[in-house]
Automatic annotation (TrEMBL):
Membrane listed as a keyword: yes
PANTHER family (UniProt xref): SULFATE TRANSPORT SYSTEM PERMEASE PROTEIN, SULFATE TRANSPORT SYSTEM PERMEASE PROTEIN CYST
Main function: Part of the ABC transporter complex CysAWTP (TC 3.A.1.6.1) involved in sulfate/thiosulfate import. Probably responsible for the translocation of the substrate across the membrane.
Keywords: Membrane, Sulfate transport, Transmembrane, Transmembrane helix, Transport
Main location as per UniProt: membrane
Protein name: Sulfate transport system permease protein CysT
Complexes and interactors: The complex is composed of two ATP-binding proteins (CysA), two transmembrane proteins (CysT and CysW) and a solute-binding protein (CysP).
Membership in a protein family: Belongs to the binding-protein-dependent transport system permease family. CysTW subfamily.
Pfam family of the protein (one): BPD_transp_1
Parts of the chain that traverse the membrane: 34-58, 79-105, 125-146, 158-177, 236-256, 268-291
Domain of life from the UniProt record: Bacteria
Compartmental location: Cell membrane
């Protein structure tokens, strides 16, 4: 029986020795290429971030360097900056530990009402800041539910720096929880079991196995909570009391300067606040980079 070697018209040629299929001339991309994507990114960041910051940096110099220095070195401004950054740092540190515990409970345990507790964590995100401030003030005032318990002990919460601290803890907690929770959820339980098999105690497993893996997420949440606390305004002014040299935050002082039509003075305070916040976040990012390098080593 003879085989007809003549190819049928329109048939696909068989793969024979030496045959190479044609190469694709281009790869299909869902998103645009690097050049277009980079251009959109830089344009968007320039319009949203760089240009407003450039306008802010240019505004204080209307009265010259002496005017800027006189505004920043004002004792009232220095007192507000000290109060703002100190309470923000303390609130972020407290949330660092409290948020880790909350994220651990929500990730590792099942209990009735877990969904409700998980939803309550996001409440400071959704709650308007003015509503949060009024709620906290009514609760922690001397005649409030919580404030009345501390009033006989001589502890005043509302209209003091302690009230500012409470408000900043309230608004900063979700940043820690939501930064750590996904990492905990993906953490392999077999690693903990292996550590226990090798003789590690629960404390050693936590300090040497779990926490090093959570360190980048903890620092990310800490930086977000700190940044939010530094710029918080609405929930703080109701409970702060706004007394100069006692409970006056820097964002409120900027608003006061604007109401006095001192735009250059307001911009000078804003630049000082922005510089301190940038340096603080730079230190946090440097620490996060150091930890990541040690983790890879």
């Amino acid at each position: 029986m003879t085989v007809n070697a003549t190819p049928t018209p329109g048939a696909v040629p068989l793969a024979t020795e030496g045959y190479k299929p044609p190469k694709a001339t281009h790869k299909a991309r869902v998103l645009p290429g690097f050049g277009l994507s980079l251009g959109i990114t830089l344009t968007y960041l320039s319009l949203i971030v760089v240009l407003p910051l450039a306008a802010l940096l240019a505004r204080p110099w209307e009265h010259g360097l002496d005017g800027v220095w006189q505004t920043i070195s004002d004792p009232r401004v220095l007192a507000s900056l000290r109060l703002t950054f100190t309470t923000s740092l303390l609130a972020a540190l407290v949330n660092l530990f409290a948020g880790l515990i909350v994220a651990w409970v929500l990730t590792r345990y099942d209990f009735p009402g877990k969904g409700l507790v998980d939803a309550l964590v996001d409440l400071p995100f959704a709650l308007p800041t003015a509503v949060a401030g009024v709620s906290l003030c009514s609760m922690y005032a001397a005649n409030g539910w919580v404030g009345s318990l501390f009033a006989p002990l001589g502890i005043k919460i509302a209209y003091t720096p302690l009230g500012i601290f409470v408000a900043l803890v309230f608004v900063g907690l979700p940043f820690i929880v939501r930064s750590v929770q996904p990492v905990l959820a993906e953490f392999d339980a077999e690693v903990e079991e292996a550590a226990a098999t090798l003789g590690a105690t629960p404390l050693q497993t936590t300090l040497r196995v779990i926490l090093p893996s959570l360190a980048p997420a903890l620092l990310t949440g800490f930086s977000l909570a700190f940044a939010r606390a530094v710029g918080e305004y609405g929930s703080v002014i109701f409970i702060a009391g706004n007394m100069p040299f006692v409970s006056e935050i820097t964002p409120l002082l900027i608003v006061i300067k604007l109401e006095e039509f001192d735009y250059a003075g307001a911009a000078a305070i804003a630049v000082a606040m922005l510089s301190l916040a940038f340096l603080s976040l730079l230190l946090v990012n440097a620490l996060q980079l150091l930890l990541s390098r040690r983790g890879r080593a």
